Amino acid sequence: MRELKLVGLDADGKYLICEGAKPAETFKLAADDRLRAVLSGNTAHPVQPHLDMEITNMLSPKEIQARIRAGASVEQVATASGSDLARIQRFAHPVLLERSRAAELATAAHPMLSDGPAVLTLLETITTALLTRGLNPEKLSWDAWRNEDGRWTVQLAWQAGRSDNLAHFRYTPGAHGGTVTAIDDAASELIDPDFKSPLRPVAPVAHLAFDEPPRPAPAPPVEAPASSRRAKPAIPAWEDVLLGVRSGGQR
């Protein structure tokens, strides 16, 4: 810190004139209330100096709402701009309501299929798809934001087991609730009526090789008893035929 030597007041009496180690180095110090307080010894409660500098990252209300409408959260905008969280929330609240309303309207829109809009709404289609795959359709989280081209992107979040899943749709307002178009694969699977595979891949079940018990040997064929056999007719001897003797010993 350099030491200055007091020379005196300027002609108007508003500044103190000081000089440095060299007489050619002169400085002036404003003779304001703060300097008078220091010289008088009354410095118990210093007054916070007013900052006239412009904070370059301070966003205007319009800029705050534009970022929120584009999908940023209140926390993200506050962190990026260095602004107070309460200030961001005050201007973001109406836009968050707008986003929530857009997401609600999108659930009543009809998914676009290869042959045109579906009869069921997006919410009905999603509910059916999740139930078919054994998932809980009650804990769904919807969000929406407006893109630079003015169109709405709708996001669906759901949980399957321990995995968090996202699907995105393009929402176009219109008659009969408007339409939604799948943006990513997850969205396509949810609205595809012919898609049979589960949304969450299932590991194949390992094949367990068990030792097959030996098959019992076939039982040997059992010969029917003689009593059950059918009696055959008696054949007469040759000499009986020649002598005209009948079977049974009668002539």
TrEMBL record:
DUF3071 domain mapped to chain residues: 1-171
Region described as Disordered: spans on this chain: 209-231
Highest rank taxon of the organism: Bacteria
Protein's recorded name: DUF3071 domain-containing protein
InterPro entries per UniProt: DUF3071, SepH-like
